[in-house]
Amino acid sequence: MTDYPRASLLTDKPENSVESLVRHATDNHVSTFTLNRPESLNAITPDLRERLIQLFSEASADPEVRAVVLTGTGRGFCAGADLRGGGATGERIPGDVARTLRLGAQRLIAAVLDCEKPVIAAVNGTAAGLGAHLALACDLVLAAEPARFIEVFVRRGLVPDGGGAYLLPRLLGPQRAKELMFFGDALTAPDAERLGLVNRVVPADELAKTARAWADRLAAGPTRALALTKHLVNTSLDTDRATAFAAEAAAQEINMTTADSREGVSSFVERREPRFRGR
Length: 279
What we know:
The chain has 279 residues and is of the alpha/beta class. The protein is built from eleven helices and ten strands.
């Protein structure tokens, strides 16, 4: 995979440190998070999960970050939860599984959905199980031609978790979602694009460049308006029309107090390109 830009804000960490599990660079208002466990196709350990949650929380609150790109090193985007630690077997106390999901995988997906900055998934390879849901929780999904999406849970005799039964019906409708989850077949990147799971499929050597170009456009946009738009869209399918309309009106009321909204109107009147500052 093409390397993403390394910025002055990137600090090299020992390969066995928690920080090394996710490479983090911020350049020209774009933060890039790169999953960095290529030997396991970037399978998610508890430490990696917590690091990602922290990074999304920090990006959400940092006014200098105006867009995020999420990608992976090596051949895989993310192979899902790392089950090799032995936590998936053995005796359990009732409530352990539900508690683990609430505090773990569900928090991770929520961190992406709730991030106040637009998030682009640059899917460089296989995205399976929780890894597929991590990509699909992002606002925009770019996929390299070799990428595949796999609802692998049924192959392990498991119920889809990590928000899968929430995300997929909203993206595909219930019947298509059930087809993917019931059979667990690998979905190629072109098929994912055809179904609407992926915004665009690009050659592998163009993935990084395309993701960066999209992120730069988003980072130059009206950041608060994008955050409010993301919230309205993400909540629209869970509300009735009256509630959605009220939320829309409230969001526009809030947005009209921002400097970027004033700049947008001024630039229209003055017939020039707007210069948004993310404020």
